[in-house]
């Protein structure tokens, strides 16, 4: 048996269902600066890599949020990796602060200058991805924001043989409702390049 829920049924909350089944979702902890110079910091769980070369990441603003406005005004943003140790700060920064208040300042989250773009990065985050706006795409009630990656800043203590280590990064992930995924299990499996490689 299966429960089937049509997305065009007015009694079906597609957003609530999709965020429960498209899981786990990485968190883009996005910092931007308004035209007036105010720092905004907000988590976005609709986030992924959109292109390998040139390197482009995507975030989605559901509704017209401060992040979307600031990116439109300045053309820059930074994604700081949201680690498990920062879960309280990440969650608190999702509150709807007034546009004239900085979440980082109000919550006491230390920021530091970025290297290639104006918005600062979260000082305690193990990774920061500095981006310039590539383009935006309007999609119903949401806006897809595509950012060209200009610089990755990675703390040395999360690198193993020069490569970021997942267990050391210890990233947060969003699930459905008010749930978060922490300390995910890691398993390595060699990917087959050809059908003949399967099972070897």
List keywords for this structure.
200 residues, alpha+beta, Pnp Oxidase, Chain A, 7-stranded antiparallel β-sheet, 3-stranded antiparallel β-sheet, 14 strands, 35% strand, globular
Q: Care to describe what's here?
A:
- The protein has 200 residues and is of the alpha+beta class.
- It has one domain (16-197): Roll (Pnp Oxidase, Chain A), CATH 2.30.110.10.
- The protein is 16% helix and 35% strand.
- It is built from 5 helices and 14 strands.
- It has helices spanning 14-21, 66-74, 87-92, 103-107, 166-169, and strands spanning 25-26, 28-33, 39-44, 47-51, 56-62, 76-81, 111-112, 121-122, 127-139, 142-154, 159-160, 163-164, 173-174, 180-181.
- It has a 7-stranded antiparallel beta sheet. A 3-stranded antiparallel beta sheet has the order 1-13-14, with no helix packed on it. Strands 7-8 form a two-stranded antiparallel ribbon.
Summed over residues and divided by their number, the pLDDT gives a mean of 96
Indicate the multimeric state. Answer: single chain
| Uncertain segments | none
Order of helices and strands: HEEEEEHEHHEEEEEEHEE
Q: Give the DSSP E fraction (strand runs of 2 or more residues).
A: 35-45%
At the fold tier of CATH, the topology name is Pnp Oxidase, Chain A
Radius of gyration of CA atoms, rounded to a whole number: 18 Å
Largest sheet: 7 strands, antiparallel
Residue share in helix? 10-25%
CATH architecture classification name = Roll
Annotation field: number of helices: 5
The total tally of domains equals: 1
Structural category: alpha+beta
Number of strands: 14
Strand order of the largest sheet: 3-2-6-9-10-5-4
Q: Can you tell me the CATH superfamily?
A: Electron Transport, Fmn-binding Protein, Chain A
Gross geometry: globular
State the end-to-end distance.
36 Å
Q: According to CATH, what is the class?
A: Mainly Beta
């Amino acid at each position: 048996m299966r429960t089937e829920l049509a997305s065009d049924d007015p009694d079906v909350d597609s957003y609530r269902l999709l965020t429960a089944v498209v899981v786990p979702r990485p968190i883009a902890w996005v910092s931007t600066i308004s035209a007036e110079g105010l720092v905004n910091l907000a988590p976005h769980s609709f986030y992924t890599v959109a292109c390998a070369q040139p390197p482009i990441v995507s975030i989605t603003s559901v509704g017209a949020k401060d992040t979307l406005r600031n990116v439109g005004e300045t053309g820059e943003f930074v994604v700081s990796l949201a680690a498990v140790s920062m879960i309280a700060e990440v969650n608190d920064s999702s509150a709807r602060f007034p546009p004239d208040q900085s979440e980082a300042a109000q919550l006491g989250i230390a920021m530091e200058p970025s290297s290639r773009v104006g918005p600062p990065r979260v000082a305690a985050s193990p990774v920061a991805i500095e981006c310039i706006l590539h383009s935006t795409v309007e999609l119903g009630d949401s806006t897809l924001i595509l950012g060209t990656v200009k610089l990755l800043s990675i703390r040395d203590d999360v690198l193993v043989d020069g490569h970021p280590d997942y267990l050391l990064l210890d990233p947060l992930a969003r699930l459905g409702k008010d749930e978060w995924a922490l300390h995910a299990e890691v398993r390595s499996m060699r990917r087959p390049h050809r059908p003949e490689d399967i099972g070897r």
